[in-house]
Amino acid sequence: MTYDCVDNGYLDNTSVYTVPPGHFFALGDNRDNSTDSRMMSAMGFVPMDHLVGKVTRIFWSLDADGRLRGERMGKVW
């Protein structure tokens, strides 16, 4: 899959990662302001035995201006 996007900062432009067996690569939903697996010194790859649950609904969601996105609250997958 490919798509065009605006360059939003340094975390958009990362190298290719090879995830070791038995690990996950976690990505935050705020691409340029998420402490996730792209920040090896802070989080890195997540061992499978560290996962304790699965997200099933959105509790709180804000738009780019910090306003509540009511249409997403309580959304269930």
Automatic annotation (TrEMBL):
Keywords: Hydrolase, Protease. Its main location: membrane. It is a single-pass type II membrane protein. CDD domains: S26_SPase_I. Pfam families: Peptidase_S26 (PF10502). It catalyses: Cleavage of hydrophobic, N-terminal signal or leader sequences from secreted and periplasmic proteins. InterPro entries: LexA/Signal_pep-like_sf, Pept_S26A_signal_pept_1, Peptidase_S26. GO terms for molecular function: serine-type endopeptidase activity; signal peptidase activity. One of its GO terms (biological process) is signal peptide processing. It is found in: Membrane. Transmembrane segments: none annotated. Its EC number is 3.4.21.89. It is an enzyme of class 3 (hydrolase). GO terms for cellular component: membrane. Residues 16-60 form the Peptidase S26 domain. NCBIfam families: sigpep_I_bact (TIGR02227). Belongs to the peptidase S26 family. This is Signal peptidase I.
